[in-house]
Amino acid sequence: MGDFLFPIDSGAALAIHVALSAGIVAAIIAVAAVLREKRAGARPDTPYESGVLPAAPPQGPQNAPYFLIAALFVIFDMEAAILFAWAVAAREAGWTGLIEAAIFIGVLLLALIYLWVDGALDWGPGERQ
Question: Does CATH place domain 64-118 in 1.20.58.1610?
């Protein structure tokens, strides 16, 4: 439909798209440079959040279970996205696709059982060794 409204070569359309994207990025950077607050004597190694300088030094590294939960969420979220894509194309995939999805879910369950037995899901206080 685009060919009827704007008869243009696909290479020219790509060049226009890249040029407009680069122009928008450059404009955003220029506006941010003009509008940002200038701090006299600011050190580049100090964090600056919400206009407030930190009152105390950082308290050290985050708790490891926090990152474990985040990693497990990302892993299982991606697997859910893969299964959703399979569900959309389930009719076209047929029995072969169903068997492949069952194997995929089985591997996921084995990984979850391994993590559970290993204690990776025990992030509360208690008997973790």
Answer: yes
